[in-house]
Amino acid sequence: MQTAKGWQQFIARMLFPLPDRFQRSTRRSTQAFSKRGWVFSRACLGSNRGGAGKWWRACLALLTLVCAPPLTAAELPARSRGELLFYLDTASFRGATGQVLQEFYSEIPFEQLTFRPAPQGWQSDCSTSVVIADTAGNVLLRDEWTQSVTARSPEETAGRVLPNQFELPLAPGFYTLALTLTDLHSHRAGRAEIRFQARALPPHTLALSDLQLATSIQVDTAGGKFAKHGLNVMPHASATFSSSLPLLYFYFEIYNLAAADSYEVQYAIRNGRGESLRTLPAKWGRAPGAASIEAGGIHVGTLPDSVCSLSVRVRARSTGAVATQTKPFYVEGRTPESGTDSVIAGLPEREFKRHVAQMQYVLNDHDKLMLKSLAPAAQRAYVSQIWRRFDPVPATPVNEFREEYFRRVQYANEQFTAGFSAGWQTDRGRVAIKFGIPNEVERFPARTHAQPYEVWTYFQEGRKQFIFADLDGYGKYELIYSSDERELTRPDWKTIIDTR
After folding, report:
1. CA–CA distance, 423 with 407 (Å, rounded to integer)
2. How would residue 209 be classed by pLDDT, with cut points 50, 70 and 90?
3. Helix axes 400-416, 376-390, angle to 10 degrees
4. 185: burial class by Cβ within 10 Å (0-12, 13-18, 19+)?
């Protein structure tokens, strides 16, 4: 049995107070939760805070996770039949009183769709037809809608997928859902059918929702269809991970916690026979309200090529109540780098750290959190994943975006290094990396009432202007004005360059 030592993983816990009667409507409002003020904390599951004398509970937890039954085919996502290949999955969450909020996820590769020239590049149109029935065969719902997806070029569709999600409030019970996707250009179609249980969740005892697998989880700012309680959870209906997608993200909800109670969470990975592959030590969390969410990611790129599952066990500290949940997933095509491309894999450790530091201008807050949380080997896989996100032509072996980015880094170092600050770390270097070499540069020497300054102008994507001034007289120009709202402007910038 392999322990958590050396396992490249992280768990990000997001806790916030929820109403005592934690219910979710058919349309979530992320604003309602963001106003409550949720607290974000993160930690590697590398320490057991259960206290001395709790070894027997750890043993019970291990038995619960290890001795789970083997996986069955019915637990895995449904694969379509027909001319279009796509996947269909589902998960149960708590809905209004007496109901289950059942979510459905589909995922189809772009390469399955037909793209044609359109005003905005290339466009594919497809229709989705849904039929849901009870166990007696009575049709409860029929619905159909169309969806368009665009790409700048046919090459841009390589390796991409089209995720989708919808939800239905259902009474607890067993159902069948049939989903048909039709490409409106080629008229090819595929059909997937899934038999599922809208799982009743107890109103008072500790309970968990189903586990949802995702390709990414980030703080939500737009409130789109993938939003859940302030998070954007991008569904991964195929539940398939590989060297090119080594990070397994997960999301689930915990219900009926005592107010301000702490709880213990354990995670384990099993193979298809129910045998434990990896088990992590227990981790404690505290929920300010009666419910909370758990969201995070685990690096599974080093797992053997097989059907596996993520098992979760939650125990409430005050009552000792236990709830468990399991979600199967696939791992295929393992490679030694586990998703790390050859450029990143070949960097010595010191060069890799400098590489990560210099790429900060393309990192969002979520990326920075991930890189701090992951073990060194997993960091390289994640950096590779970030660059693939920006690759304009994934089908080619060269990442043109990354090549151009580091050409700009080199230019910044050659032109703007000042004192102990490398060029890429200066304000002029940052703007040159983010926006490119300016179309026009005007330089103004020092005057009696003004510091020396430069005015950079860009004509593409609308006129942009940046003004840098040498405030300390040592040649390190600082940004004092920007017409781009993503950069800061000093309120006294006019005074600095005033030549009267």
Report:
1. 13
2. very high
3. 100
4. middle
